[in-house]
Amino acid sequence: MFEVFKKLDWFFKHYWKRYTFAIISLIIASAIGLIPPKIVGYAIDHIQFETLTMKLLVLIVVSYLCLIVVHYLISFLWDYTLFGGAVILEKWIRSRLMDHFLKMTPTFFGKNKTGDLMARSTNDLKAIAQTAGFGILTLVDSTTFMFMLIAMMGFTISWKLTLAALIPLPIMAIIMNKYGAAIHARFTKAQAAFGNMNNEVLESIRGVRVIRAFVQEEQDRQRFQTMTEDVYDKNIAVAKIDALFEPTMKVLVGLSYTIGLGYGALLVFENVITLGDLVTFNVYLGMLIWPMFAVGELINVLQRGNASLDRVNETMNYVADVQESEAPVTVNSLDTIDFENLTFSYPGTETSQLKELSLHVKKGQTIGIVGKTGAGKTTLFKLMLRQYPGIDGKIQYGNKAIEALSLDQIRSWIGYVPQDQMMFSKTIRENIQFGKADATDQEIFKVMELAHFLDDMKQLPNGLDTQVGESGVTLSGGQKQRVALARAFIKDPEILILDDSLSAVDGKTEAKIIEHLRKERNNKTTFIAAHRMSAVTHADHIIVLENGQIVEEGTHETLMKNGGWYKEQYEQQQLGNDGEVIS
């Protein structure tokens, strides 16, 4: 049960001063809380024996008030320090999780659903933070404070009465242990179900247009209802065990009260203890309710925290598929990019997506990559970004193997515009500034002109300050592509990769963007993958991929003379619906 604290020892060691202060303050506050019942008993005995004077009464009242003030101040200190530490732990783990996510490759996100990762980053972190806050509180109160109470009851009143009243404790320990095991198992299942529901909600929101287009609203509603029922059932299973804690505690505490009151009254009649002692004992017994209840809460909180920490650690312990070189080399000038006998298969597949691919690229060249869907164009770009391990053959930047370079340097060279553009829920200005954080409006307007987006921007309600909505929902497909292009252009990268990034724009707009590219990137390397041949006709070198292999290569003129797939595809695309060539 306490293994969760061992798993978090790295945090407690770092903040040992904070937690030592919090625990000592909590113990002092608890000790101070034991004094008022003795004062009450003392006053009752003086009343019973008619020895209470005004001077003594004033002293008792003043002492009581002073204890209240001191107890309040010390309680504030331990509360602030202890629960402040829990907030720090949550912040630390959340930051580490985010750093971990940013280092992960597509393989990781293929194995883990987004909704489940969100559940681990929210609900599970809350449960872990509760362990470092409320868990420490219940641990101290269910051990130190309980023993302090028992010691006060035994040493200052009667050990016989104390031991008799505590007979239900062993029974409680056995029952609480069984409840704790059940809580751990059920809470783990409930959190997993919540993660699956999160993922379903995300997919429904992202795909709402498709759901409506195919009139699947009712089916999606029913599917979501089924998932919510599953989450409900699993949380109810947790709640059933939760609900047993308090009644069990009350029954056992009530039994302790019955023993204490009955046997205590007998001891008063026998003059073993005074009436004031019996009153004090019952006050202490009432104070013992919380420590006894804290035992149950401690087991509950620790089991929840342990289950959540296991889920978070499972994510954190996932080793990135692509590892940094231990001693990365630096390339000062990116003069060449070489692919030598490059062969690659995605993890878990037997088919090779690229086979024996070789290509030599000089700085400043534009490389066109065409081929049928699934030919390997996007795969090649992902390998250039080093998103996957397991490469056979070589990729070299400036005569240095890609494995020897740091990931930061590789990706700092590259401006990548993928097939599916990702728009952040921010303004157009902020989306473009992802390419260059300190970009001025003048620079933004320049790249928007290159991306042929200025006319569209004039029609938007707030210009650059227009919010694009979730995933760019307020923009059309062509507009999203051009904002993504502007974001890459403003970075002015050494290598620009356009992965079918002009598919949603018309031919005239595409021609203007290509013309702008040719003027602006004279001495920079550009890779353009496209299904429309018109996007690559200007390229210095064009390769045609088929099943991951280069089947044709050369300039546009050379490929047209060869009379292969490229020529056939180009001529088909140049024909209008009526069979006439489009000029």
UniProtKB/TrEMBL annotation:
<keyword id="KW-0067">ATP-binding</keyword>
<dbReference type="GO" id="GO:0005524">
    <property type="term" value="F:ATP binding"/>
</dbReference>
<keyword id="KW-0547">Nucleotide-binding</keyword>
<feature type="transmembrane region" description="Helical">
    <location>
        <begin position="157"/>
        <end position="176"/>
    </location>
</feature>
<dbReference type="Pfam" id="PF00664">
    <property type="entry name" value="ABC_membrane"/>
</dbReference>
<dbReference type="InterPro" id="IPR017871">
    <property type="entry name" value="ABC_transporter-like_CS"/>
</dbReference>
<keyword id="KW-1133">Transmembrane helix</keyword>
<feature type="transmembrane region" description="Helical">
    <location>
        <begin position="21"/>
        <end position="44"/>
    </location>
</feature>
<keyword id="KW-0812">Transmembrane</keyword>
<dbReference type="InterPro" id="IPR039421">
    <property type="entry name" value="Type_1_exporter"/>
</dbReference>
<keyword id="KW-1003">Cell membrane</keyword>
<dbReference type="InterPro" id="IPR027417">
    <property type="entry name" value="P-loop_NTPase"/>
</dbReference>
<feature type="domain" description="ABC transmembrane type-1">
    <location>
        <begin position="21"/>
        <end position="304"/>
    </location>
</feature>
<feature type="transmembrane region" description="Helical">
    <location>
        <begin position="56"/>
        <end position="89"/>
    </location>
</feature>
<feature type="transmembrane region" description="Helical">
    <location>
        <begin position="281"/>
        <end position="302"/>
    </location>
</feature>
<keyword id="KW-0472">Membrane</keyword>
<dbReference type="GO" id="GO:0016887">
    <property type="term" value="F:ATP hydrolysis activity"/>
</dbReference>
<keyword id="KW-0813">Transport</keyword>
<dbReference type="InterPro" id="IPR036640">
    <property type="entry name" value="ABC1_TM_sf"/>
</dbReference>
<feature type="domain" description="ABC transporter">
    <location>
        <begin position="337"/>
        <end position="572"/>
    </location>
</feature>
<feature type="transmembrane region" description="Helical">
    <location>
        <begin position="251"/>
        <end position="269"/>
    </location>
</feature>
<dbReference type="InterPro" id="IPR003593">
    <property type="entry name" value="AAA+_ATPase"/>
</dbReference>
<protein>
    <submittedName>
        <fullName>ATP-binding cassette, subfamily B</fullName>
    </submittedName>
</protein>
<dbReference type="Pfam" id="PF00005">
    <property type="entry name" value="ABC_tran"/>
</dbReference>
<feature type="transmembrane region" description="Helical">
    <location>
        <begin position="127"/>
        <end position="151"/>
    </location>
</feature>
<dbReference type="GO" id="GO:0005886">
    <property type="term" value="C:plasma membrane"/>
</dbReference>
<dbReference type="InterPro" id="IPR003439">
    <property type="entry name" value="ABC_transporter-like_ATP-bd"/>
</dbReference>
<dbReference type="GO" id="GO:0015421">
    <property type="term" value="F:ABC-type oligopeptide transporter activity"/>
</dbReference>
<dbReference type="InterPro" id="IPR011527">
    <property type="entry name" value="ABC1_TM_dom"/>
</dbReference>
